[in-house]
Design a protein that fits this description.
It is built from 13 helices and 16 strands. By secondary structure, the chain is an alpha+beta fold. α6 packs across α13 and α11 packs across α12. The two termini are 22 Å apart. Bound molecules: adenosine-5'-diphosphate (ADP). The site of adenosine-5'-diphosphate has 18 residues, from α7.
Length: 360
Amino acid sequence: RNDISSTLPAIGVDVGGTLTKLVYFEPNDEDEPASEVEARVLKNIRRYLTKNSAYGKTGHRDIHLQMDNVEIHNKKGTLHFIRFPTAEMGSFLQLAKSKGMAKLLTTVCATGGGAFKFEEEFKREVNIRLKKFDELDALIKGILYADTQCKTECYYYENASDISLSQKARFDFSQPYPFILVNIGSGVSILAVRGANDYKRISGTSLGGGTFLGLCSLLTGCTTFEEAIQLATKGDHTKVDKLVRDIYGGDYERFGLPGSLVASSFGQMNSKERRVSVTREDLANATLVTITNNIGLIARMCAVNEKIDKVVFVGNFLRVNPISMKLLAFAMDYWSDHTLKALFLEHEGYFGCLGTILLT
Ligand code: ADP
């Protein structure tokens, strides 16, 4: 069979604990394929990956994130971004098999824990070999690349100190180093990045995006991440949490703690009367605020420890989730006396898979 993947690293996957992220690089037409066979193969892959029906009901192509006219390994083309739940890997492979993918590709670049976990299955079901890369190497490579290709990649929140006024604004990330990188996926990893090849993983927490979705499902009966975020948007965590003012009757002035500050997350829920009066929305909001603030706190301590003032947040927990981004922007700004800055990137959860096709 024809193997174009050795000459053209076209597909990268990041098989995470919750979501599988896939990037597909489609070369521009002006690059004449070497042969008729290659042309046919390319056409088939293109048709397969750019049609939503190709990856089932639970797969999505994020068309708004598509990057046109970018250069990869001296070829110009378009990057397409696709995601589906890792739990659907079995059906994804069956679908890929039924579409004859095995005849088109022999190797796919892969990262994430699933690159190990599903290696045998890829080989058995679609006869595809996974070329594995470390997920943190790939993540950083992807971030630096995306920012050079896309001038609107990086942003921050203006007026971060007042959440009701904070607004997205472009950030010039052309001088990135040093920065703290907080990857909020199912769990959280925190890195200190001082150069393209100079980084270390400094911390992490198991209380991440997976925890938010898990707890929120238990507490509200929601069935999707989108639903959890929608509920959270309409809820009020102060009905669930115990605030400084619930304990002090006002501010704790001596240490400058405002009355509106959460003293104890979910701290009201030991009371039966309180429990019957909270809504699913309040519980979703409290779960989101709890998880987000905890990540913000750890990220800030890491930044202070490393003496680094830029904190970049990525990962799919931030997808369709401005509440968390504004909270993180507020937390970095407020608790550091405006010395730390929270930064965000448009391609959120896709940097790992993108990095794999750059590392080949
Ligand atoms: P991982 O590599 O661990 O799967 P991701 O960066 O893909 O990590 O983030 C996974 C997290 O993103 C989930 O735990 C959840 O909080 C959030 N998320 C965003 N969109 C979805 C979705 N459509 N389905 C499930 N989780 C989602």
